[in-house]
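Chapter review: from sequence to fold.
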Amino acid sequence: MRTSIVFLFLILSLAGCKNDIEEKCAFIPDTKNITIDLQVEFLEDSLPAITSKTQLVNFLSRHIIMRDFLFNRKAYPNDSVFINTLYSKFTNPHIDTLLFETKKVFGNGTELQQELTTAFTNLTYYYPDFQVPKVETVITGLETDLFVSDSLIIIGLDYYLGKGARYRPDMHEYMLRRYDKNFIVPSIMLLYGIDSRYNDTDLSDRTMLADMVTYGKAYYFAKHMMPCTPDSVLIGYTAEEIAGARANQGMIWKRLIEDEAFFSTDGKVKQRYIGERPKTFEVGDQAPGRIGTWVGWQIVNTYAARKSDLPFTQVMMQKDAKLIFNESRYRPTEK
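The token string follows.
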């Protein structure tokens, strides 16, 4: 598994929700006898502190994955251009402001480390053979947000400074909302939850339903790794959006049926209901984007509730999306 969250549209904005149903925790595993060895290396001071290109080269030589994936070495024509570009960025006086704001938001990193520890401990509960990756934090100069692999996670903290930060990533506001410190660990868990090692899928099934259930299982996974994280944080809806989705499940369902969307393999239909958009206008001006992934989550939740004797890991490894759909019996009616 290796990816940057920038390219996964299922991982979206942040907001808490005061809906009592949403705030309910998932199953909280008993992990008191589980101890993990989480190594976190805080490197955010390193690049802003360089004073020569030699120092920069030495740092990147010690952090090859960071060099190649977080800073995308291959995008540059040669090493000279690459080093000159990064050196210019990290010796720019504005980098000090970015570093100051990062420290203001994240402090000494204790809170982030504790959140990671909790999530990885829960992951180990369900998957005892799980090998905890090393974690590095860094300032990228708003280059990249997150890198996740089996053995290493790199977090570009300056991407997650949240609303009010002087420097923010250049993207649409509805996408920008996701980049808050509270979204880092949920993002990582969602990336694990979409990975085929934990989320088995039938690759021959190209229907939108298959995609909906795959994403639904990713949310289901992340919720179990972070049991008391509000659904709104995981799915990326505001309080109003998720309340509206819950209140209008029947209308959303009816629209999906009318469009014959569930078993469609048309890319335009998928983009309409599960793609990255500010709103799902086909449902209504107030319907949040990616509403199909939210419905997929409800299908998986309902399936798991009806199959209460089925272990969490078996729910995740059920690859037949149509079976999950049928046996969930999720059929909301319009009010």
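Two observations follow directly from the output. The first strand starts at residue 2 and ends at 4. The chain has two domains: 2-7+33-174, 208-328.
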